[in-house]
Design brief:
The protein is an alpha/beta fold and 325 residues long. It folds into 2 domains: 2-47, Orthogonal Bundle (Arc Repressor Mutant, subunit A), CATH 1.10.10.60; 63-324, Rossmann fold, CATH 3.40.50.1360. It contains 15 helices and 10 strands. It has a 7-stranded parallel sheet with strand order 1-10-9-5-2-3-4, sandwiched between helices. A 3-stranded antiparallel sheet has the order 6-7-8, covered by helices on one side. Strand 3, helix 7 and strand 4 form a beta-alpha-beta unit. Helix 2 (24-31) packs across helix 3 and helix 14 (308-315) packs across helix 15. It is elongated. The termini are far apart.
Length: 325
């Protein structure tokens, strides 16, 4: 009976602490025991399953889908956002809001943030960030050439400089096109001291924020002029290309698709991204689902922020295919 008596006392301590809301010091005084004993009993209450912890997911959150993404793709974390409709504009807005909150909550002092500048979703994130009272980041580094059509280039520059201002960081723009006309032209741009200075910071990035694109470029990227021709993109697809991160293409299994076009891109490589401590991908939408699936198989992405519709397609592809038939 001694064990029963012991468990009865543990249960009483647990009730006083968890149900009645009493402090450990008050429980110890009431029961005439030390506070250390109360603390040990509370720990035993969990071991003996007298106290069981239940996490109830709030409405509008998707813990099961997030767990499914972590398990299926080996992610460290996943964030799945509520979205009222499976439409690109609505999805980008919701992902942008969630990404802004994530960055505000997890940004560490002295971080070097790398950002893919031709992403509408990342632009939405920046527009939702609140100014941080104490400057946290050290640098915000543009990871893909930011020169292009002047009407669109302002968005890319705004994205980088605004994020730097909000986080108290110093902005480092990549003053070159994302895609050089030729390999020789790329070498000329790389000869610029300011371009070299920014690209030398790639290896110091601690947090990279990237978009994931299908082989067909996004409207913002297409308008910027930093794209390959239709014929060149067809060659990428023939080589197995399914999607890209910062214009670095990969196939359905996550393997790098290396083509001569790679030599014209002025920006971070997938290999460099793989060495970054945290790579956060913001992406969603039906047209990008295959590309997102492939991107998560590269082993580069640590955390994905996506919408519930895309998450369902990624976690339960068989059910999605049957529903489409």
């Amino acid at each position: 009976m001694s064990r029963v008596n012991e468990l009865r006392m543990i249960a009483r301590v647990a009730q006083m602490y968890h149900v009645e809301g009493q402090r450990q010091a008050d429980i110890a005084k009431h029961l005439r025991m030390s506070q250390a004993t109360v603390s040990r009993m509370l720990k035993r209450a969990q071991v003996e399953e007298i106290v069981r912890t239940t996490v109830v997911s709030p409405s509008g959150t998707y813990a099961e889908l997030e767990a499914g993404l972590r398990e299926r793709f080996g992610l460290s974390e996943a964030v799945v956002v509520e979205c009222s409709e499976d439409r690109d504009g609505a999805i980008m807005a919701r992902i942008g809001e969630a990404a802004a909150h994530f960055l505000e909550a997890t940004l560490q002092s002295g971080e070097v943030i790398g950002v893919s500048s031709w992403s509408e979703t990342i632009l939405r994130m920046v527009d939702n960030i609140h100014p941080m009272k104490a400057g946290k980041a050290k640098y915000v580094v543009q990871m893909l050439g930011g020169m292009g059509d002047p009407a669109v280039q302002t968005h890319a520059n705004h994205l980088t400089t605004r994020l730097a201002k909000l986080t108290g960081a110093e902005a480092h723009l990549l003053s070159a096109p994302g895609v050089a006309p030729s390999r020789e032209a790329k070498l000329v741009f790389l000869g610029d001291a300011f371009v070299r200075e920014t690209m030398e910071l790639f290896d110091r990035i601690t947090l990279a924020i990237v978009g994931i694109g299908a082989v067909e470029p996004s409207s913002m990227l297409a308008r910027s002029g930093n794209v390959f021709s239709s014929r060149e993109l067809a060659d990428v697809e023939e080589a197995g290309g399914t999607g890209d991160m910062s214009l670095r293409f990969f196939d359905t299994s996550g393997g790098l698709v290396k083509t001569p076009l790679d030599d014209r891109v002025i920006g971070i490589t997938l290999e460099q991204l793989s060495h970054v401590d945290r790579v956060v991908a913001l992406a969603g939408g039906r047209s990008k689902t295959a590309a997102i699936d492939a991107a998560l198989r590269t082993g580069v992405v640590d955390l994905l922020i996506t919408d519930k519709f895309t998450a369902e397609r990624l976690v339960h592809p068989e059910a999605t295919e049957r529903a489409a038939e």
